[in-house]
Fold:
Amino acid sequence: MRRNVYFVLIAALMALAMWLWVQRIAIPHQIAEAAARGAPRGNLSDLYPRWLGARELLLRHRDPYSADITREIQSGYYGRPIESARPNDPKDQQAFAYPIYVVFLLAPTIWLPFAVVQKFFLWLLVGLTAASIPIWLRTLRWKLSFPSVLTWIVLTLGSFPAIQGFKLQQLTLLVAILLAAALFLVSRSNFVWAGILLSLASIKPQLVFLVVLWLISWVLGDWRARQRLFWSYFLSVIFLVAAGELVLPGWIGEFRAAASAYYNYTGGGRSVLDVELTPPFGRPVAAILIAVVLVLLWRNRKVPETSLDFQCSLGLVLATTLVVIPMFAPYNQLLLLPACMLIVRDLKALWTRHWVSRVLVVVTGISVFWPWLSAICLTAGLLFFPATSVQKAWLVPLVTSLAIPQLLLALLLAQSRILRANKP
Structure:
C-alpha cells in the first residue's frame, strides 16, 4: 500500500513538471516567437471555430462553411483575419471543417459568451478525461487498487497530449471519452447505446473509421447476437446526417469541400509515417499496415466481447489509427491509453517472450516517459538559469512524440502473437 502511495506522489511530481514546462517554458517561448515574427495570436481555441459556426447557423441561419464565417473565426482565433500576403501569417485557415451535426453537441452553449463556454469546456474536458481512465480499465477488465487508478489519472492529466488538448479545448478529447464509453458498452453487450455514442464520435471521422470497420467485421462474426450494434450505429448516423440536412441543406458537399481545403492548406495532411518516411513511402506503408491489421481483426471476428483477444483488437485498432491518420498532433495520443494499459497489464508476458520484445519494452518505456523526465530537468533548470536560456530547449520533451504510436503498435502486435500462442 505504501508503495502505491509513492507511485501517486511520483506521478504528481511528473504531472506538475509537465504543467510547469507548458506554462513557464513552452507557452512563453511561443509567445515571444510569435511577437518576433509578427504572427497573430488570439484565443487559439480549437473549440472556437466550431462554437461560432454552431451559433451563427442555429441563431442566425448563416452557413458556417462560408468564407465570411471563416474570416470571423480567424478574427477570434488569431486576433485578426490572416492574409496570404503576410509571409509569417499561419497557413491554417481555421475554417469550419467538421460534419455539420457537431452543432447539435454545441447547441446548449450558443447563447453564452465564448469566454464562459471556454472555461466550462476546459473543466468538462478535464473531468471527462479523468473519468475515461476507470472506463478504459473496466473495458479491459483490469481491476486495480484505488491508488493505482489514481496514478493512471494523475499521469494522464499531466501528460502533454492531455494538457495540449485542454489548452486548445480540442474536440478530440470529447471523441476519446465517447469512444471509451461506446467500447465499454460493447464489452458489456449494451449494443444500442454503444452504436449511438459511436455515431456521435464520428464528428471526427478520421479517428473512428478504423474502429467502425473493426466493429462491423466483429458484428459479422456473430450477426444474430450482435446486429443491434450495426443497426444502432447505422440508424444514428442516418439520423444525424438527415438532421444536418434540415438545418443546412446540401451540407455534405460543403463539408467535403471544406475537408479538401483543410487538407491542402495544412500541407497535405501528413501521418506519422509520412513524416518519418516521406509521403511517397509513408502512404504505401500505411496502406499495407491497415490491410495487415484488418486481416488480424477479421481473424478475431468471432471472439466474445469479454475475451482477451477482443481487448487486444481494441488496443490494436486505436494504435493503428494514430499511426495512419493524416495528422500527428500529440493530443490525439490520448487514444493510446488502452494500448498503454494492455502493455502494462501484460508486461511480464512481453518481457519473458523474446529478447526483441524486451528491447521493444525498454525503448517504448523510454519514449513514453521521456517527456516527463525532460520536463523535470527543464523546470529544474529554471532555478539556475535565465528563463530565456531554458526556453531555447523547449522542444526537448517532444522529441519522442512521433515514435510513441509506432512503438506501442509494435508491442501490441507482439502481444497479439502471445495471445495466439497461449490459445489451447
Residues 290 and 320 are 7 Å apart (CA to CA). The longest helix spans residues 2-37. The chain has a mean pLDDT of 90.
